[in-house]
Every structure is written in C-alpha cells, then in structure tokens.
Amino acid sequence: MICSGFFVTSGEVEFCSANPILKYTQDDLSQRGVFGTLFCTNFRVTFISDEKPQEKTDKTFKNKLYGENDIPLMCVDHIYGVYDEKRKLITGGLVKNKYPSKMIIHCKDLRVFQFSLTFSKEEDAKKIFQGIAHHCLEEKSLKCVFAFSYMGTPSPEMQWKQETVMFDSPEDWTQEMKRTKANCRLVTENENFELSQRLPKYFVIPLTIGDLFSYQGKGLPIWCWSHYSGCALFKASFPPVTQEDGDFQKHLDTMINAVAHNHLYSVKTEDLSESLPNIQDIQQSYNKFKQFFLIENSTDFWLSDVKWFSSLESSGWLDIIRQCLQKAVEVVECLEKDNTNVLITEEEGTDLCCVISSLAQIMLDPYYRTLMGFQSLVQKEWVAGCHAFLDRCNHLHQKDKEYHSPVFLLFLECVWQLVHQHSPAFQFSETYLTVLSDSVHVPVFSTFLFNSSHHRESVMKAESPLAQSGPLSCPTVWDWSVQFDSKAQNFFFNPLYLEKVKHDRAVRKPHKPKHQRNLSLPSTAFKTPPKKGFFKDETDSLKKMLRVKRLSRWRGSPDAPAATTREFFESWQHRPLDYHGLLLPCLDGPAVHIWMQRYLRWIPEVYILGGGSVAVMTKLMELLSQVQDLKRVLEQRDSSQAAKLDHRPYFQHRLLSFDSSGRLSSSFPFAYTCYRSFKPIIPTGLMQSLMVTDSLASQEDEASSVVSFV
Amino acid sequence: VSDTELRVSQDQSPTQKFLFYFLKLMHVLNYPSKGELPLLPEEHVQDSAKDVTYICPFIGPVRGSLSVTNYRLFFRCTDREPVFGLDLPLGVLSRVEKIGAATSRGDVSYGLACKDMRNLRFVHKEPEDSLKKSVFEVLMKFAFPVSNNMSLFAFEYKQVFPENGWKVYDPLAEYKRQGLPNESWRISKVNDHYELCDSYPAALVVPVTITDEELRRVSSFRAKGRIPVLSWIHPESQAAVVRASQPMVGQNGRRCKEDEKLLQAIMDANAQSHKMFIFDARPSVNAAANKMKGGGYESEDAYQNAELVFLDIHNIHVMRESLRKLKEVVYPNIEDSHWLSNLESTHWLEHIKLILAGALRIADKVESGKTSVVVHCSDGWDRTPQLTSLALIMLDSHYRTIRGFQILLEKEWLSFGHRFQQRVGHGDKNHTDADRSPIFLQFIDCVWQMTRQFPAAFEFNEYFLITILDHLYSCLFGTFLCNSEQQRLKEEVPKHTVSLWSFVNSQLEEFVNPLYVGYPSHVLFPTVGIRHLQLWVTYYIRWNPRMRPQEPVHQRYKELLAKRAELQKRVEELQREAANRTASSSSERAGSPTRSITPVQTFV
C-alpha cells in the first residue's frame, strides 16, 4: 500500500501495485537494477525503490507533479513485453492471460523504463501488468483523464496566467488588433457557438465580410496578425475538394476578395495541404525519428550510431521542419517585402495553418519572442485557435490513427531551430521549450485537453456543477508554479537574451520600418501602386486578373519559391543583424540541427561530464549575477551617500546556485548523473563501424618507400 | 533589480566587430577600390591584370583586377558594391590549370584548386602578344616555388614580433614540468646528432635501466628507427604514454631482446600496474598485412604482460579520399535534402569518431587504469601523434591553454617528425602526390570537437584553430615547413623564418576563449558517439556566405565582462570616496567587494 504523503497531487487514487519489481538501470546489459514497488494510479505509473533514497543533492530542477520514476499515464507511448527473449509490442489483445517476464515502457518524453516482473508473486505481476496496459493503452473517455480528478490548489501567484493573454475575451482580441494596428472586425456572433463549433469563440475577420452564416463559417478568413504596412495574415479552412460546387467557389471568391480588400487589393493564397506534408506524413515521420532516441541498451546505441546520419535523413523529420520553416519564410516574404495580404488555407485550418502562421509571427514580431508573448501566441493560434489537441496528441488512446499527429511538437521543433540559430533574440530558453513539449503529456492542464473552444466550454461547463467546490480546478500550463518552483523557473529564461532597453514588455511598440534589417528591396513586377484606392474604381475583372497573376506566381514551378526565398534570406543576411527586427532562419542542410536537449537528455552514452552548454550557461549566469550585484551595490552607494557601508554579502548567485565545478553533465537540468562513477563511455563494436572497401585501405602509408625494410 | 536593467543594452553590441571577424575569416576584406595593396615586408607584386572575371559560385561573375605577389593573390572587384575582394596566400593552392581552350573572344578560363576546401575560377583574356606571359603563368610559378627552384616566402618574410615564437618550446623545460628526469626515466643524448633516428628529436626520454647501446639495437627493430620513448607521464600514478613505430616482426616473427626489455622497463617504471597496453592504431587486417613487408605488431608471446589493442584507424590514403569527398559535398553547393546521407558517405566524421575513440581509450587506461601505454601505427608519425596528442589534451589541462597547445604541437607533431612537407606539399606542384594527406587537419578537427563538447575547458577559441590551419598552408611562417627537426635545423628554419607563435602570441587577445575556466585538475573524457560530433561548418563551409558563423555566446560573454569591469571600476571609485570620508572615524572596514569575485579572464 502506498504510504501517506506519497501522493504528490490530491485526487490521485491507487489502482494496483506489485512488489518486488526490478527496475533495470538503463545504461548496461548486465541486468542490474533496483528492487522496489510498482504502482499504477489514475495519474501515473510509479516505481518506488525499496532502498533508502541516497543522500540526494538538492535537485534544482524538480518537477513538482512527477519525479524521475513516475510516468504520467498520458505520457506512455508504447509498452513492450519480453516473452521468452522475444520482444513484443503490447496492444489490447495481447494482455489477456500471459504476462511478460520483462516490461519495457517507452515514454512520449523519450524516457525508457525496463521492469522485470519475475520476482513478485504471479498474481501481483499479472495484475500490475494488466492494470498498466489497461490504463495506458485502452481507449478511454475524457472524464477518466486525471485532470478531472485533480484538485490542485490554485497557486497564490497568478502572475503567469495574468500576463499571458488568453484570447478568451473580446478585450484580448481588441487589444491585439490595437497592438498590431489591424483594421479588421471582431466577430462576437459565435459567443454561443451558434455559427460553428469548429470556430473560436471570438475571432477577427476582414472588414468587408457581411455574410457570416453560410457554409457554417467554412472558408471564413480568420485574421492572425497585421504587418505595420497594413497588410495582414489570414488563415481559413477549406471544405474537402469533392464538395466544391459553383456556389461555394463563389463564396470563396468573396472571401478572397475580402482579404484583398484589407490592404491595397492584394492577396496571395496558399493551400498548405498542397505544399506541405499532411498530418499523417508528419506522424509517420516522427514515429521513425523518435525510435532513434528510445535507446534500451548500450549495444543498441552504438549500433545505431553507425548509420546515424542516413537514418536521420530517412525519417524525413528534419526535412519536414525545414519545409515548414521555408513556408513560413515565404509568408514572411510576402508580408515584409511585397506587402501583400496572405491567406493560408487547409482543410480544417487548425493544423499546419497554426504552425505556419505562428512561425511567421515569431519571425516578424519580436513580442512573440518574449516568454509572455510566446505563450500568448500559443493561446491565440493554438488554444483559442481550436487546434485539436485531444485528437492530435491521442490522449484517449483512440484506435483510429488517422487523427494523431505531433503537429504542436513540430511547431516547437521549428521554434527551437530559430532559438538555436538566433539565441539572443529569444527571452525563453531551450529548456523552456523542452518542458513545454513534455507538459503536453501531463494530464493536469486544460490547455492541451480539448479539440476546440466549444469542446472546452462544453466539457468545463458540464463538469463544474458536479465538483463540490465550484468550477473545475484544472490549471493552464502557463501556471508554471504547478510544476516548478520559482527557482527552477529561472531555467526558462535565456541568459543570452538581449532585451530591448526602455521597453515595456507588455506593450509592444508598433513595428516601424526603421529596423536595420528590414528590407527595402526592388519592387517586384506585381508591386502594388503606392496610392491606396487606385483600384477602387477598377472593374472586377482587373482585380480578378491581378489575383490570378499573383496566385500563379506563387503556385508556379515548385523550385521558384525556394529560389526567391533564398534571395530574400541572403539580402536579409547582408544587413546588420537586429535581434528585435525581422528574424529569418538559415535553412541549408548543415544549419538544421537536432534538438539535442530534448532527444538526447536520457541517453547516458552521450552525456558529456563537465561539458555541454550547461558549462557555458553556468558561467554566464554567474557573470550575470555578478553584474547584477554590482549594480545593486552602486545603487545602494548612490542612495546611502556612501556614508554607511552595508555589510550584507554582495555576491550571492541568486539566479542559479548549482555547483559550478564543471562536473555537471550535458544533460543538465534533466538527468542527474552519479559523479562518483566518472568514467568515459568507450564505444563498443567499433569494428563494424567503418567498412572501407576500396583498395586505398590496404595501401601502404608510404607510397614512395614500399621496399625499404626487410 | 529588474531584468531590464540587468541586461546589457543592445546599443553596445559589437556587431561591427563581429562582422569584421567574419570578413576576415572569409578573406574578404574591404579594400579601397583604388590605391596601394596592403603588402607585407618583402612582399612584391609580380604581375597584375585588369579585366579578370572571378566566377564566384555564390554571387556569380565578378569583374575586377588580379595581382600576384611572391606571397599571395589579390583580387579586387571593380563593378560591385560593397567592394569585394579575395586575398589568399599562394600556399593554399594545390593546382592551377587552364580549363579548355580559348573562346572565340580569346577568353581563357583558369581553375585554382585550394587546400582549404574551395576552388576558384577565373576568366581572363589571353594577352595578344604571345611572348608576354599571362598573369596566371606568373601565378603558377610563384604558387609552386619548390617545383621552380625558388625559396618559399617564409624565408623572405622578415616581420619582427615582440615575442620570438621559436622559443616557445624547450624540450628540457617541458620534460621538467612533467617531473622528468626522475628515478625511473632519464633523458638520453643518444640521438643528439640524429644518428639513431633522423625523424626523432634530439632529446629522448627513456627508462633509466636501458643503455644507449640497447637503444641502438632497438632502433634497428623498429620501423625507421623510431624507438619507444616517453611522451607524457602521469604526475600521480606515473603511468606513461609512450610512442613508437611498428616492430619489424615480419613473416617469420622476428624478435628483439632489447625491445622486449625496453617495454618491460617501461612497465616497471610504473609501480601501480603489472600490465601495459600496446595500442596499435591500425585496423588489425592492415597490421597483419604489414608483416608481409617486414613490419607487424607485438606478439603476445614476446611481450607477456602487454595487451595489444587495435584501434581501427585507417591510413593516409583513406583519409585523403574522405576529405576529397567532403569537399565535393560542401563546395560550392550543398544538396539540402540529402545533406545528411551525403555527409555520411564521406565517412569523415566516422574517421574523427575512431580517432577520438582511440585517444579516449588511451586516456582512460592511463587515468582510470593507471597503466602505461605504448602507441604506434606503422611509422609512428601520422596516426600516432593524432592519438597521443589528443590523449594528452584529455589528460593534461596544460595542453588546453594557448601556450600549452603550442608546446604540444611543437613536441608531438613537429619534433617527433610528422612529415608536414610531404603531407601538405608546400610549394610543390605535384598535386596528385600520394603522400599528401589531411592528417593534421583531422587532428585539429578532433580538438575542435572537444572544444564544442567542453566550451569552458580550452583557453583558445575557434579562430585560433582556424588560424593554425590557414598558416599550415600559407608558407608565411616557418613553423610547419620541413619533415623533421633535423631537416629544420639543417635548413636553418628557425634562423631564417618567423614562427607562427611569434605572430599568435603577439596578439593573444584575438585567440582567447572568453568562457575559459580552466579546471586545472580535470581530465576530459569527450563523448565520441557520432550524435555528438558535428561537421566543423565554420571551417569546411566557411566560403559559403549563407553559412555565416554565429558566436552569440562568446559575444554576449565579452559584453558582460566589459560591463562587469566597468561596474567594478565604479564601485571601487565610490568605495575609495567613501573610505576617504570615513577614514578618520571608522574603526571597522568593509571588505572590498571585488575581492570575492572569482578571477576570470578579462580580455575584452
């Protein structure tokens, strides 16, 4: 039985347990491990060691909800059973009678757990195995998700939540329009989801649209962001091609015209489902990709090391990241260089549209590179924007694979590329992104649990009367205090961030073309005349012709956009870099990297003891706090007339107080390694690694002196 | 204190300085479009031509003028803003050739293949007067002085620097730093006149129990006479890193009593272990194949307490081919969608991985196993210095400082006879020479990989490594000339040329890593998984303007150091002021706040 004080969160209920269970230590084949009890609760699978926990160094970066031996149920990706040395993927059907001698759990945050079930009583082993398999793999209803049982106390400091714009009220949208000087219309007619259940509660559309109610709001151009020039980015859903009839085509024309009306009668439309991989492609590619990081033992690791690059390439994941960034750059180019309105479309308008529009906004608008700005962007485009998190993340283990896809993760991957290339432009750190990607699978937050605003409201409303203590108390992910104390939250900030001086964080200054790195490129053939209203008296046909021309230019040969964006990137690159201006990623092969922190953090073979970026960050943090302290000293001196000397210690490293001896591993702050066993990792199986088959290998080193020794 | 105040304002960002660094890296400097060329002392213009077109693979054809001096090639464009130029030492050229016949308009195109991962192409009108030499013919003459019986520019360059880099390495001082000679090891003069081995240094460290006469016998048993001698000794365990060439075992399994005694003595010199490891850098197949040619490896019968380990590193020809493929993949265009598989097909990073893995195993045996090791390959001058010097960098933090690294190169590479002249082919037009191989480049790449993994453990920065590689080819300095210490003395290289270290040590701040912490006693064990190895983009792909280097961390750190220095100064001023006011009355004195700051390198 679980002893009292075990539950980290209130509302947690134990389902079953077994003891003794051997948890293998991941890093070798010696079958060594730790004995303990394995529990399955309504929140997690957890292993509690029988050994007294060793004197642990104060873990600076501790998740309050789950520890290193906890797996939130939602976080379980696959379970494998080892039956007579054979490893089988566990699905619902296999669970029935036999239980495996060894259970391997692959987690969505890429941890791998291996448990031996052979030491406990048969009955217990069977029960825990079936329990875990049932709760982690079987289809379940939303009500069973732990968030509905979770009764966390609302955090006293609501700072995170308050500063993040949630976009759940008309005021938030009005404010956002004001901030970007958008000239659009706020729609409040969908407040009760009468218009459409797939549309946000509140949204913004071009001024000239009158008819909202035809086609259940399909094809409605939804405003995303306005460029300082006046042109804007819109996204829209399209019905499946088969439904296209003459009337609907007309409806679409009206919509496109409305977008064009927004600014100078120009519009470029882009059907993302034509030019980008679909959500199933994304899912398949990621499934291949993640396998390279789910390492069960050292032999696997070194074997997969040999064909590493070609394996990576064959997954296609990095290529999908590149394609998304590329598309976003194309959108940015239209807005920034050509000053045309852009309408991106897709069947639902809530998957790749979210990826591309969010990325474009991050590249264009420095506000979204601050932590609060970024969170607001996720709220705006993804949460309020009705991305189907529940289906895409497959929180309910539905069998129908068609709807699963790591679209949000793909977005975070793309953002990571930008952060990696232009670190000083971002207020948040790589660690923040990694934690955010993990939090998707923590079944506590309302943020990632629903398919749309309507879904959220209907569930939350239905739930609230049932709970005794008022409304459902599930926090948003932005309330970071639920997971981390304030000290750990320091890791979310990027010490390299160059903050714009004298700049109120909440209110972004209007984007002005004074940025050094904004472009003033020669006008294109279709550059609209500068005088607004020039086309006002023109006939429809001219407008149409213009639009067709624009469309054809975009949709021309597939290579053409790549070539022009290349040019766009190069001319941007030639200007001095302004981290508060336009930001573009380099997309050449060698510039696209793997998100090392997220993918390699649990693999001991790649830990660099005493190295990695943590060594740099430690140093920077130290220096930052020294500068900070010196400033404080100066301020005190100035105010206290230097008469009385303050005896407080001057140099506390308040930002981060971890051991700066250089003995932290590169996986910090995620995995902690035992420093006692400070041994190098010697690769095994080097013999297979390099098969040089050509004749050069057998050639003598000294070509000129073959016969010198006898 | 709010975040805003904490962070340094952007106005102070040294973007300009950084841009300059970038341009310097690219050898693309903004010259005045007219006026004097920035010539070095003793550098003279040999020929110039106007109306030369440089076919830049990145920005297209550029028209300009070309000048050839006895040291380098200048190209200045005349039709483009901003002014753009090329400035490359002739030493980097491996091949200059006319491509095809003249066009109907009399244009001839020339291809220049470079040792530093690029190819240049020019188009030029052939002079109408057939007697007059084209500028490219002049170029060919001065690019390959050795083939044309002329001396390298290094022998003419007479720049004086505040420091004499030839004095950086004093073998006896270095051995003294390691605590040598001691009761087990002596410094032998047997090779004083390079009679024992002409590719070894004069000073050799050998076990005290072995006489010079015995060493002579050993030398006849080791390839090229390169006997086992000490490279480094562990300050605590006394475990030694010993280097050698292969034993001349041959097909009949020849043995040498003195060689066996020498290895036993090396093992005995370390009381901590009754075992030793012999690391043969080659793949076992190749080592065995060497028996056919009289070479081979130590048999377990003859060397009873020694364990032989093969490290599977391939020979110079494989490495040369690998780099050739790499150049194909990165220059001028990169195929984005197949970048990773193309990179893999070059095997370059796999070779890097094997070399690092070998060095790691050596360092591990010495540090964790407290065992002495002998390292050799075939001749002991290519793979052996790669392995020993990398192991030494892992084991001894001294070699991670700027001066320490210079000593390491002087010792393990130069004095122990890595054949720089042959491997690089200084001033030699024979570009297909099978003795050329990027062995030293590979070593520097491995060091770079380590600096990536341990960004705070090295005193030098990336620019330092790139500078070394640039001057490996430039022939401006004498450092990398000749094949051995003996040859350098014979040619009086130190007398007639300037050392690269004279130049480097006279402007150290350029080469300092601002993140350096030192960790004096730490052994570095890098991760050799290919997942953590990267292609050194800022070296191999530096000519591609899209691969612009980004060093925000270093930059930010420098800014902060400057900020801190400024604030410290103000605090001290205020303190002094306060101290003056209260000097008469105050009995208690506040400790200076500056005292508690950990000393950091403050090159700003």
Automatic annotation (TrEMBL), chain A:
It is found in: Cytoplasm, Myofibril, Sarcomere; Sarcoplasmic reticulum. SUPFAM superfamilies: (Phosphotyrosine protein) phosphatases II, PH domain-like. This is Myotubularin-related protein 12. PANTHER family: MYOTUBULARIN-RELATED, MYOTUBULARIN-RELATED PROTEIN 12. Keywords: Cytoplasm, Sarcoplasmic reticulum. It holds the Pfam family 3-PAP. It comes from Cyprinus carpio carpio. Belongs to the protein-tyrosine phosphatase family. Non-receptor class myotubularin subfamily. GO terms for biological process: phosphatidylinositol dephosphorylation. InterPro entries: MTMR12-like_C (IPR022587), Myotubularin (IPR030564), Myotubularin-like_Pase_dom (IPR010569), PH-like_dom_sf (IPR011993), Prot-tyrosine_phosphatase-like (IPR029021).
Automatic annotation (TrEMBL), chain B:
One of its GO terms (biological process) is phosphatidylinositol dephosphorylation. It is found in: Cytoplasm; Early endosome membrane. Substrate binds at N290, K291, M292, K293, N315, I316, C377, S378, D379, G380, W381, D382, R383. Keywords: Coiled coil, Cytoplasm, Endosome, Hydrolase, Lipid metabolism, Membrane. One of its GO terms (molecular function) is phosphatidylinositol-3,5-bisphosphate 3-phosphatase activity. It catalyses: a 1,2-diacyl-sn-glycero-3-phospho-(1D-myo-inositol-3-phosphate) + H2O = a 1,2-diacyl-sn-glycero-3-phospho-(1D-myo-inositol) + phosphate; 1,2-dioctanoyl-sn-glycero-3-phospho-(1D-myo-inositol-3,5-bisphosphate) + H2O = 1,2-dioctanoyl-sn-glycero-3-phospho-(1D-myo-inositol-5-phosphate) + phosphate; a 1,2-diacyl-sn-glycero-3-phospho-(1D-myo-inositol-3,5-bisphosphate) + H2O = a 1,2-diacyl-sn-glycero-3-phospho-(1D-myo-inositol-5-phosphate) + phosphate; 1,2-dioctanoyl-sn-glycero-3-phospho-(1-D-myo-inositol-3-phosphate) + H2O = 1,2-dioctanoyl-sn-glycero-3-phospho-(1D-myo-inositol) + phosphate. The active site is at C377 (phosphocysteine intermediate). It is a peripheral membrane protein. Residues 346-393 form the Tyrosine specific protein phosphatases domain. Residues 574-604 are annotated as: Disordered. Its EC number is 3.1.3.95. Its main location: cytoplasm. Transmembrane segments: none annotated. GO terms for cellular component: early endosome membrane. Belongs to the protein-tyrosine phosphatase family. Non-receptor class myotubularin subfamily. Lipid phosphatase that specifically dephosphorylates the D-3 position of phosphatidylinositol 3-phosphate and phosphatidylinositol 3,5-bisphosphate, generating phosphatidylinositol and phosphatidylinositol 5-phosphate. Regulates the level of these phosphoinositides critical for various biological processes including autophagy initiation and autophagosome maturation. This is Phosphatidylinositol-3,5-bisphosphate 3-phosphatase MTMR2. The lineage of its organism: Eukaryota, Metazoa, Chordata, Craniata, Vertebrata.
